Amino acid sequence: MIQLKIYVVDSSKSSTKAIQDLKALLEDKFGGQYSLEIIDILAKPELAERDGILATPTVIKVAPKPERRIVGSLGDREKVLAGLGLV
User: Fold this and answer.
1) In which band, very low, low, confident or very high, does the pLDDT at 76 lie, cut at 50, 70 and 90?
2) Domains of the chain by range and CATH?
């Protein structure tokens, strides 16, 4: 199963868009075969610090290994999949 985390800031418009884009991509590509943890860096700054988050949105593919990260817009599905090593 694919495990991902997305770090966002509060419920801003750009954060909401990033979450929607990522969820739509995951559903289209993997159906229900993934887990997605949504982390608000304002609510849980210790998690952002632990994972070295410097910008949002940041997506981390936790599993399968190796870990991969992408930062920024999630609108280009092919770039997101390639960046996370999911092609």
Assistant:
1) very high
2) 2-83 (3.40.30.10)
